Amino acid sequence: MRLMQLQKPEVKNNRKTLRKLPARLAILKYFLEYLFAEPDAAFFKSLGLNCVRIADDDNPRVLKTDGFRHLDRAIETCAKHQIYTIIDMHTAPGGQNGGWHCDAGVHIAGFWVHKDFQDRRVWLWEEIARHYKDNPWVAGYNLMNEPAESHSTGLVHFYDRVYEAIRTIDENHILFLDGNTYSIDFSAFPDDAKERWKNAAFTMQAEFLQYVVYGFPASPAPHDRDTYQRKRAWMDQRGLCVWNGEWGPVYARREYDGEETDEINERRYNVLKDQLDIYALHRLSWSIWLYKDIGFQGMVYVSRDTPCMKIFDKLLEQKFRLAVDAWGTNDRYVRHIYQPIIDLIKENMAEVNRSLYPPIWSLENRVARLSRTMLVAEFVVKEWADTLKGLSFEQFDEIAASFKFENCVKREGLNNLGTIGQ
């Protein structure tokens, strides 16, 4: 088998075409090209890493070939450096869980409510399998990121459906199956999982394994290993292949955490080192979250001297202060505002009735998600959009180019751990 080489359009013509597009579409297309390119793959390989997990409608069931163009480019770039890719369907129509990263806009996982959403997901996986079935540098397909289906049986039924659909087209690639409830619960999975879903790996994006609690702001004492050992035992007893698709601490940032930044990050590097030692001991394959961002968790991150970070500087500070992110947020400036809501529920609702699905959301977390990260965040969005009004094509291009490898900072404390991939 060989990689299919795609003709790349001339940059000059490509830019001329993009100038005719609305600015929001032009910046998106360039952002995708700048985000991961040849220098990124070379750096990634230099760390001893050999696999990248790539996280992927107004017109459902009409395939957007331009999407394949960008995905093909990333996969081919990795292949040149002998890096495998895992295609990760990170969101689903309607949202496969109530998390912010599903782009559903609400805390209800509508994917499990409407069969048409599930049908569209199966159809898209068929198209992806058809496109990549002969590509040896695609390691496999991560069918659904962190599903949360309150009855569990719906997830198993969906896996049965999509497994059959893909295997009709592609018998070679590994299928990566996340557990239920954000990939921590395998209790409803069949005992014959190994025979039922052949050539599959089971994804433990779970508590201790994933984003260790004490890697986050305002976190409690170190978590023990019970969760990991329990989940690992379930898989080992059945002879299943295990993979951790996401993990890694959130790092302090000097502009927000001040003089404590280095001390905080040193503790988080120690967390990461402990996890790597456990993975090595148990021969567990993993994919770190994530490669590139604006300074939150990335192995490399956009420099604060770039146009992107300069134009959004005040808004990023506002977002941090209001704690409108659901991810690794420190609520120290607004905790007193939301505490009365928490107290109201505690005082008027029996404890048994305060435990809603998913159980990993505490009462405090649920109040934060519905009030701060949805209600307040909805008002913040317009301010971000207004910041971009009136910008020229060249200015949009500069913002997108901020994500080029040469405009990023390497997180040496993370990247030098041992070397991380060896």
TrEMBL record:
The keyword Hydrolase applies. One of its GO terms (biological process) is glucan catabolic process. Signal peptide: none annotated. Pfam families: Cellulase. Residues 41-291 form the Glycoside hydrolase family domain. Gene3D superfamilies: Glycosidases. Keywords: Glycosidase, Hydrolase. GO terms for cellular component: cell surface; extracellular region. GO terms for molecular function: beta-glucosidase activity. Belongs to the glycosyl hydrolase 5 (cellulase A) family. This is Glycoside hydrolase family 5 protein. It comes from Paxillus involutus ATCC 200175.
